[in-house]
Amino acid sequence: MAKLAQGAKYRGSIHDFPDFDPSQDAETLYNAMKGFGSDKEAILELITSRSNRQRQEICQNYKSLYGKDLMADLKSELSGDLARLILGLMMPPAHYDAKQLKKAMEGAGTDEKALIEILATRTNAEIRAINEAYKEDYHKSLEDDLSSDTSGLFKRILISLATGNREEGGEDRDRVREDAQVAAEILEIADTPSGDRSSLETRFMMILCTRSYQHLRRVFQEFVKMTNYDVEHTIKKGMSGDVRDVFVAIVQSVKNKPLFFADKLYKSMKGAGTEEKTLTRIMVSRSEIDLLNIRWEFIEKYDKSLHQAIEGDTSGHFLKALLAVCGGKD
């Protein structure tokens, strides 16, 4: 697979199905679930080869043809990892992300990794859509739930990211040096400590959460020039806990978002046991955005294809469905 040049278009692995016929698809799914037992193969084959937009049309047609809710029928026919993957693919993206965020905050513990992975990587438009979907589905604002489920600086960073208010222009030359200086001070490399740590932390948060990606790339370059250190490495060394993790995620996402997800996918399948939830969440949410780029970064870094990694780590219908979403052996 040819490498996509830096700045080239991001590409997903799933696209609109040509010659799409939603009522025919609805009938195929209905027949696959009729009677005793279901034809899982037929279900996963159809759903993984349609785009999200097309899946929404199939849902509409299913309801008008059979007077039944396709999501509810799928839920009763499928179970476990396969159900999570197929039902995830059926949801509109913003509602899917909203559900993942809600799940990350439900119950006793908080899944900080999931909160970070979603909030640190979505675009302004995606974040705004997630906020709307969250309100619609849970009758509460995302901000309120984040507020009651996290604390301290970590909470403030997540809430800032959840406003979807990142600048979208190019770099601001005058501010590049200034921002790099703040980064150097907070990461305790600079010779001139100024101001107390908490006001510096706030400034650093504001820089990472509100400056445009293009601007931040310049800031990171300037940081290296000023300090001879890489900003990501310095955050890892000088900070700890959730604050470190969310700052690192933002930096990695700014540097190379597909690589960020390739790393997460690799880690979800490394060692004993698979983190199916992480694996599923990334495959579903990136399938129409940049999964081809993620596949490229994966093989480049780990010397094996995402296809091979999935094959070696999952089984059954879940494996088949994941490979269909992945879309190629590279």
From TrEMBL:
GO terms for cellular component: chromaffin granule membrane; melanosome; mitochondrion; nucleus; plasma membrane. The keyword Nucleotide-binding does not apply. PROSITE patterns: ANNEXIN_1. SMART domains: ANX (SM00335). It holds the Pfam family Annexin. Transmembrane segments: none annotated. The keyword Repeat applies. It is found in: Cytoplasm; Melanosome. A pair of annexin repeats may form one binding site for calcium and phospholipid. May associate with CD21. May regulate the release of Ca(2+) from intracellular stores. Belongs to the annexin family. This is Annexin.
